[in-house]
Amino acid sequence: MVNDRARTALLLIDIQYDFLPGGALAVTGGEAILAPIRELLESCLFDCVVATQDWHPAGHVSFASSHAGRTPFEVMLLHGREQVLWPDHCIAGTRGAALHDSLPLEHVDAIIRKGTDPKVDSYSGFRNNWDENGERPATGLAGYLRERGIKRAYVCGLARDFCVRWSAEDAADLGFEVAVIWDLTRSVNPAGDDVLRAALDDKNVQVIDSKHLASTRQGMVL
What we know:
Elements: E1 2-3, E2 8-13, H1 34-42, E3 48-54, E4 75-78, E5 81-84, E6 110-114, H2 141-147, E7 152-158, H3 160-173, E8 177-186, H4 193-202, E9 205-208, E10 214-215, E11 220-221
Parallel strand pairs: 2-3, 2-7, 3-6, 7-8, 8-9
Antiparallel strand pairs: 1-11, 4-5, 10-11
């Protein structure tokens, strides 16, 4: 498939210190994606690059510390849906919430901050999780991409089984052609990767490897 680069975006999902070694919610092996993603950005394959950034207020509802007697990684019901409770992470303005310094931000066109509502979590770069009204409010990312004339998106970052997955599936649901760059993601729970690949396939999300991306004069070849 040949992609018109002017209509194609690269989405960098939550490449933040708290999701990397030493962070509050570190994803095992997350550091391995940093150099290849930097190389991908510097190759200038994409005319549109968007980074997402968890940006939680202190006391966010997704933090286990916000619920008496609860511990990280427990699951509870929130607004009628299952909610994983996390360690405090990516608190707005802290070093843990910062995008990693290895990312050449001069190649990033926009940053979408999510999880800013203290009462609602937000895994996806496109829509928040369900609120008390049973709705998933938009973050503005879909509108931004449509204004840029984007038709397809390549997704990478952290974590594969949460924010990458939700972002990719939402993008597909919203009408974009979507591919997850599998080797440029890592999972919180790698044991579930086979099930995850099947779920992405069910959503018409392609799974590719970064080595299959190549630059041509016309655009990108997958």
